[in-house]
Structures are given as structure tokens and as C-alpha cells.
Amino acid sequence: MWRPGNKLVHPFNPELGTGLVVDVSGRFLKVYFPAGEREITLAAEGAGLEPLVLPPGSRARLIESGDEIEIAAWDGKSGCYTTSDGRVVGDAEIWPVDASNSPIERLAQLRLDRLGTVRNRLEGIRLIQIREAGGLGSLLGGRIELFPHQLHTALAALDHDPVRWLLADEVGLGKTVVASLILSSLVRTGRAERALVIAPETLTVQWLGELYRKFHQIFVLLDRERIESVTRDYEEDANSFDVHPFGVISTDLLTSDPELSAQAQKVDLDLVVVDEAHRLSDPAIEAVVAPLVRRSKHALLLTATPLAADRKGFFQLLSLLHPKSFESFETFDREVEAGEAAVACTSAVRRDDIGGWPPRHAIGIDLPPTLKEPKRDPRARWIADQARTWFETREKVLVFVHETKTLEKLKKFFESETRTQVSVFHEGLTAPQRDIEVARFRESNAPLLLVSKAGTEGRNFQFCDRMVHYDL
After folding, report:
1. Whole-angstrom Cα distance, residue 207 to residue 188?
2. Residue 239 CA to chain centroid, in angstroms?
């Protein structure tokens, strides 16, 4: 007697695979065949239909949990199976696991998909090929104004496998953009399933924003709070880099915590990105970060000053990426002197290579000397007067001040004179506080941001219109 939940195989159409009885109406059965995506009404008698009984040793899957089981015995009276681990399950609770599901075996058994299904698959493959455009698709989806030299560098790097590249373009030419293009492509094409960005603390949140807003890549900030949450929410010995395969971490945090750096060494990273890579000349940073770069399949080192630690520092970065390219520093040094050094893994675009910067005008301001009796710096007075104009024209102005103490005094003076909030960016603020100050300045109508030398390393201020050097 047929009942809903019974399984069967059509004797004259085995290519349909296993069928599920979904309804019994008098002398007719309504049977659904998942493999063929078809529902067929069959005569309950006279069609040679028999319930499918799985023999001992067969594999099946529990429909509710998805767990795979092994059949030990069948009880025809109760309609239940006994599994190899002693459980009793009803026929309606399981689905047989097809052991022969390769395309060739399916074809031999005439188990063919419907024409519409095949057409959809072919159309999907065609659309993927159009979208990828020979590899360009993964580079052109970002919300950015892409410049030719950036796309050229990204394509040149991605043409190698593995990608181990030194991005040494001049300041302001978009090394972060190029690195994000390469990273995004490696992730989207499946060439990198684990990636770690190592950057100065002041730039970690900026990296998160760049990756998310411009390239739709969701990374996690591995700060102290997030790392502690891993220990709290997972096993006590859980590895933060395992739990979060796409992360951004500060160089200082990674190198100051031996336990954390040990965790990083245990993970097989597909891509390591090191921003301000010239800092690898610091032995403490080199000891922790260099092994990660060596072990990672892909690696990107970013620095606008590859020769900051002289030619040896440059050689150190190159040998970290490609240790077999040069026998020794002496060999490298001789080839450089002779103009024969071939460094194919480096991008070093200069502003002159792309036509220089947009027109910029440096203006010197003649001011009267500071008098002892008024005790008011004419530089501060001039900026306060100009700030009213900048407010009306909605211009954003960076004011660089060398001393933090002077910077704080100027903040109070300018706020008193302009009746607007003045944002600051200096060493006395934590990294999150600095990011909040920059975001507030960018989104508000306030014209001034007072910046110390903390704002000179890798920080993006392209949205600003003017720059004032207070101490010149």
C-alpha cells in the first residue's frame, strides 16, 4: 500500500532517479523526481512500481539534519530502517545517497537534465565570461576613479603566480588603490582565501574603509577588543586569524604581543599586505612580519620610500619577496651600479611619468613680526581671518603644526574666533579618536583641521583644498 514519503524508481525511466511519493489519490500516485526536476502522475498498480528498499551497507542522508548514515537493516512491517549505529529511522526521514553521480555515469544511465536547465547553465557560463572580460571584471567593479598607471600595475602583478610585488610608487599616486585592486582580484577569483593587511595603527581603519567602500571587501579590524572577543566567544585556544580569515591588524599590536604573533605564524595565509614596508628595517618588526611574508603564497609590500634605509634596505625588501633573485647584496649592488639590475616585481611610478601633479600654487604670506605687548602670533590671526572666507566657500584646509602643545592652543583660539568646531589630528589621540576627528572634519562645514607630523604617513587627505604650513 503506497503512502506519502515512499521512495521508488520508475522501471521504464531509470534516468529519472529516485522518486518521492508526495500524494496518493485512489489508484494514482503523484511522484516527484528531484534529479529530473519533474513531477509525474503514475498508476499505483500495473506499472511495475515497487517501493525502493535500501540494502544493508547503503548510504543515506537524514533529511532534517543532513547527517549521513549507513543502513544496517530494513523492517518491512514498520517501514523503518536500522542504522549501523543502532538508530531506528522511518523511510520518510531519509534520502538515498547516490554513489554514482559523475556526469559520465549519469549520462550512461540516461539521467539527463531538462533542456531548460542545461540552457540556463550555459547562459550563466556565458555571462560569467562576459563579466570577467579576460580577468578585467575583478578589477573594474570598484567605486573609484581608476587611473591608467594603477590598472597597468595591477595587471602586471596579477599576471604572475604567485603575486609577490613591491609597490613603490611616489606619494599620492594611489599605492593603496593598486594593492586593493590586486587583493580584490585575488579574492574574487579564488586565488586567495585568507588575507591579512598589516599597517601602522593610524592607518588600520582607513584600510578597512578603503576595502569596504571602494572594493566591496569586508575585512575585520583585529584590535585588542576583537581578539579578546575571540577568546571569549570561541574555544579558549581559538586562533584569531583562523576565526577571521580576512583581517587588518596594526604593526605595533602584532609585534608587541608574542602570543598574537605566534598565532599568526600558525595560519597558512594566502596573501599578506604590508603597508609602510620600509619599517621592516626595524629589527623588532622584521622578526615578526618577515616570516609571515616569506610563508604567504602572495605578498604585497607598500612603501613610497624603498631607499629609506639605503640600498641595503631596498635589497632586504626585494629578497623578502624573491629570495633567489640575487645571490647577495654585493651582487645586487654591482648590478645596480652597472645599470643591469632587473627588478621585475617592482612598480615605481613617479609623478613625472604620468604628467606631474595637477597645478598647485605655493603662496608665501608676508606677516608683521610678533610684538611682545600684544603677545598674539600674526600667523594665528591671519588663519582666523581667512577661515571666515574658507567657511563661506566650503573649502577644507589642513594646517600643519609641529608642536602638539602649540596645536592645542591654536585649537582653542580658532574655535573662539570662528565659532566653529576645529578638529585635530596628533600623537596624543588614539587611532580611533584620530579617525573620528577626520570623519567629523570631512562631513561637517568646519574649514580647519590642525595636524601634527602624525598626519604625514600614509593618511589620505585628498578631499582637502588647501594646506597651510604654520611653522615655515
Report:
1. 18
2. 19
The whole-angstrom separation of Cα 165 and Cα 163 is 6
CB 31 within 8 A of CB 65: no
The letter for the amino acid at 74 is W
Query: Could you give the C-alpha distances from 85 to 99, 258, 381, in angstroms and in order?
Result: 21, 46, 86
Neighbouring C-beta atoms of residue 175, cutoff 10 Å: 24
The Cβ-side half-sphere exposure at 119, using a 13 Å CA radius, reads 3
135-144, long-range: CB within 8 Å, 24+ apart, which pairs?
135/185, 135/189, 138/184, 138/185, 138/188, 138/189, 139/181, 139/184, 139/185, 141/184, 141/215, 141/216, 142/180, 142/181, 142/184, 142/214, 142/215, 142/216, 143/213, 143/214, 143/215, 144/177, 144/214, 144/215
8 A C-beta contact, residue 145 and residue 280: no
Task: State how beta strands 88-90 and 94-96 pair.
Answer: unpaired
Strands 466-469 and 397-400, sheet pairing: parallel
Considering all CA atoms of the chain, what is the largest pairwise distance in Å, rounded to the nearest integer? 116
Summarised one tens digit per residue, pLDDT across range 92-142 is 888 888 655 567 666 665 666 678 888 888 998 888 777 766 667 677 777
Contacts of 83 (CB under 8 A, 6+ apart): 69, 70, 71, 72, 89
* Residue 219 cell numbers, joined: 575585512
Point out the least confidently predicted range of 26-30, 32-36, 372-376, 386-390: 372-376
Measure the CA–CA gap between 244 and 22, rounded to whole angstroms. Answer: 44
